Amino acid sequence: MIRILGVIFAVFICTNMAFAGPIRIKDLVEFDGVRGNDLVGYGLVVGLNGTGDGIRNAPFTEEIMANILERLGVNVTGEQFRPKNVAAVFVTAELPPFSRAGSQIDITVSAIGDAKSLLGGTLIMTPLNAADGQIYAVAQGTIIAGGVSAEGDGASVVQGVPTAGVIPSGARVEREVDFDFASLTEIRMALRTPDFTTAGRIEQAVNAAFGRPVARMLDAGTVQLDINATRLPSAAHALGQVENILVEPERKAKVVVDQRSGTIVMGEDVRISRVAVSQGNLTLRIQEEPIVVQPNPFAEGQTVVVPRTTAEIEEEPGIGLAEISGGTSLSEVIAGLNALGVAPRDMIDILKSIKAAGALHAEFIVR
């Protein structure tokens, strides 16, 4: 149910099923060694329509532009140029696992100077480095900006973020990550949400699929797979069979509250012990209305300001003393409070108090 009170809204999502249903192992774990690598580079965008960096405010733009021109055989030593159609940018990308030389990846381009927009710009050939300092890809292409801006002498308008954009397939892989995946004899599966019950179910499901003990739970977040015990030709064949095995995950009882938007999200397993709740709002309002007092015409005296203060205490109706029986689900409590017309902000305060009293049996996360 969604209640909108001004700009505050609350969304209550409660699961009606006891379990989420079987989920593929590939959606629950990360396989050891199967990971991407972050890349970053520093480059130059050209072709902007007067929306580039101001050279005086971003001297590094002039430096990189001079370096590029020197590499192209153009001598600009001692020359002063103040173009407005170039911008210095950071280029970021992720090198997917098992990327081969010649494959293409997407990149993100972000201005680092005072450029107003990258719309219509072209990124000049930019090498992308990994954490080891080696160049793994080279980026170049036309930027698709994420917004638009326009301005005149007296006003300007900006929609979206025109100082950042993307280039689909804008980088070409030049170096491969050295990783001999085929030689692995054991692979660890790391659970995205560590849980002993889920890890045990993954172990049981994998062993049942192969008909022999090939998986072993190491801890709440790790299950180890013995490649040799699977009797398959390689680790790739083993993971291709393991990742599609269905497992029913176990989830912790959680309540997530976003105070900025008034959003409350909870799980079906959240329970509340027997507790009594009473809630009300007290508002203190003080208003100053000074009065100017002047003497009568032709009378002696001077004009003075007399302060006048109005103080008012208002107690808004809330919920009276209510008792919640033990074992009640949080969804039932929320439904009851919602039926009484309790505002989302007040509902969040009530949940905080119930948690502080030790009656809310769930992990309470406030953002």
Automatic annotation (TrEMBL):
Q: Which UniProt keywords apply?
A: Bacterial flagellum, Cell projection, Cilium, Flagellum, Periplasm, Signal
- Where it mainly occurs, coarsely classed, is other
**Subcellular location(s) per record:** Bacterial flagellum basal body
> Cross-referenced Pfam families, in alphabetical order?
FlgI
| Homology family | Belongs to the FlgI family.
Summarizing the function annotation, the protein's role is:
Assembles around the rod to form the L-ring and probably protects the motor/basal body from shearing forces during rotation.
Q: How does it assemble?
A: The basal body constitutes a major portion of the flagellar organelle and consists of four rings (L,P,S, and M) mounted on a central rod.
Q: What is this protein called?
A: Flagellar P-ring protein
